[in-house]
Amino acid sequence: MAWAQVRINRGALQRVGMNKAQQVVTTATRRTFNRSQILVPVDTGYLRASGSWRVYRVARGWRGEILYTARYAAAVHNGRRALTIRARGNGRLRFVVDGRVVYARSVTQPARAPRPYLSLALYQVLAGKSIQGATFRVRQGINISSFVD
Predict the structure, then answer these.
(1) Exposure check for the chain: N or C terminus, fewer CB within 10 A?
(2) Does residue 144 carry a pLDDT above 80?
(3) Where are the beta strands (DSSP E) in the chain?
């Protein structure tokens, strides 16, 4: 009679799985960050320079995070509504246009269309990827868009 006994070291199995998960999350996060650096709109370069990424451990796995810290990053990514700037009290707004000084009680800036560089980068990097049970999410303030491959 022949027989075999298999013993599974759950700790070692967990470490192997977590190491692979860390590799997958790190690769996806790094590639998404690199792609977003290409797609981010550039005027002065400050928005692009404010980008960073990190991968860290959470209770049940690993999490990758890409962060743009410029104050206007969400307004560029999500767009914004039209703004009206009004002078205080009976005052006037003063600014220079084409070398001439102009006074106005209010100024209206048009709405800005969204330029979703980070969401687009995530979709482009993960398009066609099959990672069973993985959830990828882009979070900007309160706007959340997510999908599962």
Answers:
(1) N
(2) no
(3) 51-58, 61-68, 83-86, 93-97, 100-104, 106-109, 135-140, 143-148
